[in-house]
Inverse folding.
């Protein structure tokens, strides 16, 4: 079944993408939750018109994301965590702490747009995270976990 996504869906696509998914996934999950609509001919025409009108705004948003990415490129974050004497962290460091550290530097980033290569960080050391600023623009940020 062809659908038009109304908002970003993880592991599927971004807003306004036209996707082909299994009928049950569309009927039982995406459409009832308001994440997608069925791609009928009239819906496709409305979708094409909306994309045409939004194209100019998209270019401007992408350019702003590129400027922010350039500023963030050399950023190095330091995140403190309570650790044992061997350097093991009590608990783990996740995207919440990284988002707070980035926001403290003056950049507004949501935690859902941050991807850590290692799922759970449980030791002191240097790591990298990928921050998605736009669907086509992302930046790698280095961060260090230190003992408090």
């Amino acid at each position: 079944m062809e659908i038009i996504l109304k908002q970003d869906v993880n592991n599927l696509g971004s807003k306004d993408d036209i996707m082909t998914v299994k009928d049950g996934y569309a009927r039982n999950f995406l459409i009832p939750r308001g994440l997608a609509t069925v791609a009928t001919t009239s819906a496709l025409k409305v979708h094409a018109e909306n994309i045409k009108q939004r194209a100019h705004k998209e270019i401007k948003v992408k350019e702003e994301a590129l400027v922010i990415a350039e500023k963030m490129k050399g950023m190095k974050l330091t995140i403190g965590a309570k650790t044992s004497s061997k350097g093991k962290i009590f608990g783990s460091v996740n995207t919440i702490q990284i988002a707070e550290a980035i926001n403290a530097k003056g950049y507004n980033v949501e935690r859902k747009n941050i991807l850590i290569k290692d799922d759970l960080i449980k030791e002191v050391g240097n790591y990298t995270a990928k921050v998605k600023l736009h669907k086509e623009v992302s930046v790698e940020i280095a961060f260090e976990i230190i003992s408090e």
Summary: Strands lie at 2-5, 18-20, 36-38, 76-81, 88-93, 114-116, 121-123, 125-134, 137-147. Helices lie at 23-30, 41-72, 95-104. The CA atoms of residues 102 and 108 lie 7 Å apart. The chain has a mean pLDDT of 89.
